Amino acid sequence: MEIWVNPACSKCRSAVELLDEEGAQYTVRRYLEDPPSAAELRAVLERLGLEPWDITRTQEAAAKELGLKEWERTADARERWIEALAAHPKLIQRPIITADDGSAVVGRSEDAVRDALDRGGR
After folding, report:
1. Distance set, CA 121 to CA 74, 75, 94, 109, 117 (Å)
2. CATH node for 2-121
3. Which end of the chain is more exposed for a tag (fewer CB within 10 A), N or C?
4. Which family does it belong to (predicted)?
C-alpha cells in the first residue's frame, strides 16, 4: 500500500494517523517532492476508476491560471488533463491510497481510508 500525501494537508495527516492506528504496512510518497509521471497518473486513475478531472483540485491557483474550469471533460481531452496534473502535482486531490488488491481510493474521509485497509492493507 502506498499513500500520496502533502504533509501540509490535514486530510493527509488524518489518513496517515488512521493507517498507523490500524497497524497498516504502507509507504509514503510526498507527491509534491516526487511527482507522479503521466504514466503513473494513468495507472492510478485506472485503479481509482476515475477520470483526471475527478481528482483535480480546481480551486488551486495553478488551476485558475490554466483555465481548467473551461477545459473539456471528454476522452479527447483526457491526456491534456493528465499532462497538467503531471506538470502541476499540487492540482492532484489528496491523499490517494493505492490498496494491495490493485485498487485505489481518494482517502479524504475515514470511511475511504478504512475501505483501503479492508482491501488488503492491514
Report:
1. 33, 32, 18, 16, 4
2. 3.40.30.10
3. C
4. Belongs to the ArsC family.
